[in-house]
Amino acid sequence: MACSLRIAWDDGLTGYNFGPQHPLAPIRVELTMDLCRRLGVFDAPGVSFAPVEPADDALLELVHDRAYIAAVKRAGQTLQPDETYSLGTLDNPVFAHMHEASALIAGASVAAARAVWTGEAEHGANIAGGLHHAMPKKAWGFCVYNDAALAIAWLLEQGAKRVAYVDVDVHHGDGVQEMFYNDPRVLTISLHESPLTLFPGTGYPEEIGGPDAEGYAVNVALPAGTDDARWLRAFHAIVPPLLREFQPEVLVTQQGCDTHTLDPLANLTLSLDGQRRTYEALHELAKETAAGRWVLLGGGGYELVQVVPRAWSHLLAQAAGQPIDPETRTPDEWHEFVKERTGEAAPLHMTDGRTADYTPFEAGYDPADAVDRAIRATRTAVFPCHGIDPML
């Protein structure tokens, strides 16, 4: 069944560029948009594009300190590092017009949220967004402005009383958690590789929210090597019960696809097929718990040709209500475009050939299994805060 989907897009979104040696390369977004176009995703009924305006200072100040915004502008003009704000580090190199590029991504995520909140569309998307690490007063983890947090803050400003944020990036959604840690209007759920083995070193199950919002920060810290079956088991053990209890007015999700086994910066072993099943589940949960109001953002993903374009094409097709058959062959024209832009050979199909089946956690807890222990730790920490029995 077709869904209405408003995609926030401007070619300038590929201007967020830390340089040719940096892993967060804008070519991943360019390849995704081209693949979607050639697969007909944008031709589905109800799909439209939203114009994008950069977030102005007043909007950015909903989540960022005024002095930090000024520092970003200054660094993008002078190209001089500013250690006070972590600008000019290896992770966050300074580049020309950094403020303008970052503000455009922030504005795109707000445009996606606006489309959903005003009823222009059921779903709104910004695949160039999902920069979830940026902090109120500093750049962090490849992220300058936190567009995900800004979209949530904008929704709260419009009068939303309950917004849920689900982050499936391999890295902890620390910036978004930080900004709403003591706000019970926002439920943040992050499933990520354990902070014992991966940046940013946060996201333990004991991080459950501030004194006024205990249980509203939720963290599922998964061991290195977690595959499709174990990841989906964890997702379904945590996310659906909490969203059903919370009943958000809007669901905001961050779809970093760096959980894939080919990703060079992390250590989980999901396939494209496991990621696709996650998108299906989030879509269904948006319909079930948030009256279909779904704001979906991109995020991490550093295997630029084999993973990101296919993953996010599945994501946008799912949001359009026209899922792509995994056996679909990628278009020859796209292969040529990939070769021209990257010199690499493109993947041939929209699947990794996995079934991505899983056994529900409710079928039985295995204390010898590290993923089951992670699930139990999170459920024990937060479920009682919501009146849910963690043992059921």
Describe this structure in words.
One of its GO terms (biological process) is acetoin catabolic process. InterPro entries: AcuC, HDACs, His_deacetylse_dom, His_deacetylse_dom_sf, Ureohydrolase_dom_sf. By secondary structure, the chain is an alpha/beta fold. It is 36% helix and 10% strand. It has helices spanning 27-39, 57-60, 66-78, 98-117, 147-157, 174-179, 228-246, 272-289, 308-319, 332-342, 370-382, and strands at 5-8, 47-50, 123-126, 163-167, 186-193, 217-222, 250-254, 294-297. An eight-stranded parallel beta sheet has the order 2-1-3-8-7-4-5-6, with helices on both faces. It is globular. The mean pLDDT is 98.
The Cα radius of gyration reads 19 Å
> How would you state the average pLDDT, rounded?
98
Major beta sheet summary:
8 strands, parallel
| Number of helical segments with 4 or more residues | 11
Which percent band covers the strand fraction?
Answer: 5-15%
State the CATH superfamily name.
Histone deacetylase domain
CATH class equals Alpha Beta
Helix content: 25-40%
- Write down the domain tally: 1
What name does the CATH topology carry? Answer: Arginase, Chain A
Order of helices and strands: EHEHHHEHEHEEHEHEHHH
- Show unreliable segments: none
Pathway: Ketone degradation; acetoin degradation
Domain Histone deacetylase: 22-317
GO molecular function: histone deacetylase activity
Keywords: Acetoin catabolism
Task: Please provide a brief summary of the model.
This protein has 392 residues and is an alpha/beta fold.
